[in-house]
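User: I'm curious what two different proteins look like when written out as structure tokens. Can you demonstrate?

Assistant: Sure. I'll show them one after the other, since each token string lines up with its own sequence. Here's the first protein:
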Amino acid sequence: MKKIKYFYNTNTLRYEKLVTPFRVKLLRIFGFLSGLLVSSVLVIWLYTKFIPKPTDTELKLKYELMKENYSTLSNKTSLLQQQMAELEKRDNEVYRSIFEANPLPDSARARLTENKKEVEKVSIMSDDQLATDIALSLNNISARINYQLKSYGDIEKLIKNQGNKLNSIPAIQPVSNKELTRIASGFGMRIHPIYGIAKMHNGLDFTAPQGTPIYATGDGTVTAAGGGTGTGNHVIINHGYGYETEYMHMVRVKARDGQRVKRGEVIGWVGSTGASTGPHCHYEVHINGRSVDPVYFFFNDLNAEQYDRLLKIAATGSAKSFD
């Protein structure tokens, strides 16, 4: 049974029935609903803030795992970058310097060489950003590896070319001279035996019986083979790399103009043709068109002791000229 409330009216001096106006009732209902709505929102906010959903917990675990995996990948990527940097440094400072080749500029290997603090970036990066960043790092390494492989291919060609160069450089004596007794005249100024005047002797004279074989001292191409005036029958070999050798006064020439010859191959025989006073082979070495002392180009023939002896013989034999 609903209770009826009364109040004492001082104007009428009577107890009267308390009647709540409809407007007041509406306000009370609105206030109650507003309070209920605010409380509901607050409860929902507190729930979502402090009580995570199962799906959120799962996503968080996945994200933490992804961060851990990214950190591992980042460390591996950094290690690969360090190894690549070491290979590139070795390429520039060791391999290419050996073969006198210009080092590769870093800009040619890869554009993405900026150092990044990968782990610190993880916390502010989305999943897509993480994947993109890893892909860029791996693409950078891949590009550098591909370029490095190309560089090693170039170095391999340099090695082969270096082998050809070593085979081409004059490195033996033009006639057999195991006892080191056949050098008659060294490199330098001396009195010419025919003209009687001081003249530069641009080579070495090797005395030997007529018909003694004369050998090519390095691989190359014959650019001249035949008779001459002062040189007599002679052969000129272009070895490439700026090297050229000349063999004079042959009794007979075997090599032919344009022929490719190997080191140690017979190109003619000792004689005394041209301006010569006796059977010998006048031998010259030219580097970029300039005559140099051939005595420094017998390193394949002699050990250190023999080489020292030969230097002394060549120095004391300057007066015994045959041409």
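Here's a second, unrelated protein for contrast:
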Amino acid sequence: MRASLLQIAVNSDETVEARRERVAALVREQAGSDLVVLPELWPTGAFAYDLFEEYAETLDGPSVTAVAAAAAEASVWLHAGSVVERAPDGTLYNTSVVLGPDGGLRGSYRKIHRFGFDKGEAAMMGGGEEIVTVRLPEAGTGTEAGTDTETGTVAGLATCYDLRFPEQFRRLTDAGAELLVIPAGWPARRREHWTLLARARAVENQAYVLACCSAGTHGGVEQAGHSRIIDPWGEVIAEAGEDEEILTADLDLSRVAKTRADFPVLRDRVLGLPDPRPATREA
């Protein structure tokens, strides 16, 4: 699988409308990749709280529609980062979407852990309640528009602050995830936490991690950048810098099963923890 992470610069001097057009153009340029990933809340910025209400949208709204069309043109699977979703009851959610190579919605995930300690996102948005996985076809199979397959890799979805909660990733692993996709708007002042935790989630779950952060500054918060692609042994196989960048790497997905078989730590788990959430959903 060829994966491309688009580390988008989200700056307050660019309008949301202009950024939608620019990001869609970048997605269109990724033909040849199998999976493309965008950062968290790239239309507004994860810390631009004053824009959340104004630019909240449904999952067929302008941001998702723009990148869905681009994904179809490039014929790629697209994890479209996340948008501010407005639910029918008016509740706002930080919602990730996965789009197929025909631009169709294949999965969505509402961020479970909201950041802000009773302020910002934590005060303005509802929390998700479901662990979500999406099945991605093997490279070269099922990538034509409108097709799916029961073979391939299971991707587990999480967003930014979720990275601090390893129990969520254990549940994703238990649900079959071999690839963990984590869009983020992580602040630069805690960059070391971002890079450390992303690698830890790969090591402890023996899974690939695609950690895609934004660059730039919005809401007065400089972004960490340093998007990373990490293999199941915890080795960083590609890493971006601090500015806008496209990070691409080829993943040998057979390494997940091989790593788990050669060093079978997951089978030695003995502490079963109670499940506080509803049943896992495969989108």
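A detail about the second structure: Confidence is low (pLDDT under 50) at residues 141-149.
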